[in-house]
Design a protein that fits this description.
about 55% helix, mainly alpha
């Protein structure tokens, strides 16, 4: 009796697994670089661009490189949800659409999160070992962010860079 129930549960689970394979989230893949990409407004040196592509862009741009397992449900849903939330927080492909205040703040957040080893996320690094930032790469990012923030500060009034209370 127990074996029959177990067999039936397994069959139902297998059928459910097969059915959910037909419900796929939209892929986060764009053709080329967006007109609103950070590189369209600010200089992104080659070394910085390489770091961003390897460690940030899968979640924080319109150009995710999907691993094979992103085609299997429910993993694809989890990855899609993760990307959606990440892009709401910071999207390098839409960076120029942000207000100057938000750009300035987001650059500061990038620097803080990288320094604190909070980005890239540990869950991302489990599979993407090459995305782990070395101290040298963190310094490159910090210097670039600092340079951009200095440039913004020099070109905009200070009161436009802080939140109004």
């Amino acid at each position: 009796m127990f074996k029959k129930i177990l067999k039936r549960v397994f069959q139902v689970l297998l059928l459910a697994f097969i059915i959910i394979q037909f419900f796929r989230p939209e892929k986060n893949k764009a053709e080329g670089i967006s007109n609103n990409d950070i590189s369209k407004l600010y200089p992104v040196p080659e070394d910085v661009g390489s770091i961003l592509k390897t460690s940030c862009y899968d979640c924080h741009s319109n150009n995710t490189v999907y691993p094979w397992y992103a085609n299997v449900q429910p993993v694809a849903w989890w990855i899609g949800d993760h990307i959606e939330h990440a892009k709401k927080d910071l999207d390098f492909s839409e960076f120029t659409t942000y207000s100057i205040r938000r750009q300035y703040r987001k650059l500061e957040e990038v620097n803080d999160l990288v320094k604190k080893n909070e980005m890239p996320l540990d869950s991302y690094l489990w599979i993407h070992k090459d995305a782990k930032l070395s101290d040298g790469q963190k310094l490159i990012i910090a210097n670039w962010v600092s340079s951009l923030r200095d440039s913004i500060k020099a070109n905009y009034p200070a009161d436009s860079l802080v939140r109004k209370k």
